């Protein structure tokens, strides 16, 4: 009976030690690899300037934004020269295997400037009420500024383009609100 208990104890210790080695091996393989979130944080931290006002970051002209795709890549949207963008990104974050580059039409700076201009118009509550204008948002993935309305019709869009902005960067949609 004692030898049987001793044998089972040794088996359990052996299994536990094998499991521990496997975990150490997996850690060694992933050590040095960064997640797309860590890479994104590292990239954007290179634009922080202690001397500039909070939230006032100056991004390069090529940057259309970044997002994380469904398989864990950090995707850079690039306006203009792809080679210049790749070189600058690699200088900032290194050469990571989980980084992709895609072309885009507008820089993040252009999208932010348009969003800010629309935000000024959005302060006009009478205009918002007249158009049923409910929100402004930047879609980095789509590389556009979205303007939402309570009811999105061709006539409302035409009024908006005439009174506010007819920029090609804007996409229009109906605001969908789900109540819980």
Number of strand elements:
6
Order of helices and strands: HHEEHEHHEEHE
> Helix proportion of residues, in percent?
40-55%
Distance between the termini: 62 Å
Helix count equals: 6
Structural class by SSE content: alpha/beta
What do these coordinates show?
The protein is α/β, with parallel strands linked by helices and 180 residues long. It has six helices and six strands. It has a three-stranded mixed sheet with strand order 1-2-3. A three-stranded mixed sheet has the order 4-5-6. The chain starts with a helix and ends in a 6-residue tail after the last strand.
Strand-helix topology:
Blueprint: H1 2-30, H2 36-45, E1 63-68, E2 74-78, H3 82-93, E3 99-103, H4 108-122, H5 125-131, E4 133-139, E5 144-149, H6 154-163, E6 170-174
Parallel strand pairs: 2-3, 5-6
Antiparallel strand pairs: 1-2, 4-5
